[in-house]
Amino acid sequence: MSKLPQVGTTIFTVMSKLANDHNAINLSQGFPNFPVDDKLTSILAKKATEDVHQYMPMPGSPALRIEIASMINKVYKRVVHPDSELLITAGATQAIFTAIMALVKEGDEVIVLDPAYDCYDPTIRLSGGTPIHVPLNDSYQPDWEKINAACNEKTRMIVTNNPHNPSGRMWNASDFDALESLMSKNERLLWLSDEVYEFITFESEHISAHHHPNLYARSIITSSFGKTFHITGWKMGYMIAPEALMIEIKKVHQFNVFCVNSVAQSVLTDYLPQVDVTQLGAFYQQKRDLFASLMKESRFELLPCDGTYFQLADYSAISDESDVDFCQRLTTEFGVAAIPVSVFNDPPIDRKHIRFCFAKDDETLIKATEKLCKI
Ligand SMILES: Cc1ncc(COP(=O)(O)O)c(C=O)c1O
After folding, report:
1. How far is the CA of 195 from the centre of ligand 1 (A)?
2. pLDDT of residue 291
3. Mutate to test the pocket of ligand 1, among 164, 227, 229, 231 (most ligand atoms within 8 A of CB)
4. Is the CB of residue 308 below 6 angstroms from any atom belonging to ligand 1?
5. Would you say the CB of residue 91 lies under 6 angstroms from ligand 1?
6. Is-contact 163 197, C-beta < 8 A?
7. Which of 83, 140, 264, 281 stands 20 to 30 A from 345 (CA)?
8. What's residue 311's pLDDT?
9. What residues does 201 pair with on adjacent strands?
10. Would you say 157 and 191 are in contact if contact means Cβ atoms under 8 Å apart?
């Protein structure tokens, strides 16, 4: 009997295959198609000949943890203890899996805000918990009335993602006030704040869980070097949690992976002090703006995008097909692959919105938008 009967092939695999089969421009899956920083690749080449090929300590390289703590201190003015509050993981996916496995038990409920990244729900189910899907409102912002109503004595965790994939929206200060109030009323509640796009933010300032000391004792933050340094294939990330929770999280981590890739950890240790992560927003803002200006002539309506490298588009002026059918036709007939947003919802909600990834070189964005403007 399957432990995850409802899980099939993910939409990212389906759309990327369809894009390949039809030679379409792939704006579906969220990965950059431009080269990574030369500095990073030359450190990698140098490290290959050094003594960096054996197991690292279980929580990750001590030097890398110090560098991450220092970056967090610079960006958020928060002091994180590298030994007790930081864990290096195989991407944010493993951080999320490990945190949920360690902290959610049979009978617990976990609030997930839809549309939601696809790894939350199955991980909660594998832990024995029950995912409670609460839809975001039509502007893809939290609906606090619904979230409050969904909370009860069984609720163990709320998983949030800010900046948000797929919508590109960010939370504002009043959302955090509402979360603080919810957590003060529900003492068992933990907050898993998935912040993999923390440095890809535009006009408005990103408010992080790091800015909320009142909640540190109950918050787990996940992030991804894949997103920050255009190295999604490295599968490197990290998690910050208070020591009491981290003790439990490490118990799972050590039998899940024990430790993660030593070469990547050693390269990132040298690279981190040489880069300014606060410049990433400006880099992607140019891409967002280029994509938006090239799409002006199209019949798609672009939705607000505060962060991430995703742009939602409303296609209701073009078609009343379901978003899944529309994305398939977009790929097979028009040569551009996108992701239907309904599949991030359980049950699916079809708002006639599709997601484009603009983490692509300018040439790709120009070619894709030429096709999109002809529809
Ligand atoms: C919201 C969100 N969380 C987590 C992840 C996983 O990150 P990683 O590739 O570091 O495992 C992604 C990747 O697309 C994501 O969009």
Report:
1. 9
2. 98
3. 227
4. no
5. yes
6. yes
7. 281
8. 98
9. 307
10. yes
Print burial letters for 161-192: b (CB count within 10 Å at least 16), e (below 16).
Answer: bbbbbbbbbbbeeebbebbeebbeebeebbbb
pLDDT at 6 over 90: no
| 165 within ligand 1 shell (Cβ under 6 A) | yes
Is residue 176 helix, strand or coil? helix
Q: Which residues pair with 112 in a beta bridge?
A: 133, 159
Cα(280) to centroid of ligand 1, in Å? 17
pLDDT (0 to 100) of residue 309? 98
What's the CA-to-centroid distance between 93 and ligand 1, angstroms? 6
Average pLDDT over residues 137-148: 98
CB–CB of 181/215 below 8 Å?
no
Asked if pLDDT for residue 33 goes beyond 90, the answer is yes
Structure tokens of 260? 């993660």
What's the CA gap between 62 and 252, in Å, rounded?
19
* 117 CB near ligand 1 (under 6 Å): yes
Residue 374 Cα to ligand 1 midpoint, Å, equals: 32
pLDDT computed for residue 16 by the predictor: 85
Q: Which domains does the chain have, with CATH numbers?
A: 11-30+278-372 (3.90.1150.10), 54-274 (3.40.640.10)
pLDDT in tens, 308-364: 999 999 999 999 999 999 999 999 999 999 999 999 999 999 999 999 999 999 999
Which residue in this structure is represented by tokens 């603009």?
358
Give the span between the Cα atoms of 95 and 236, in whole angstroms: 10
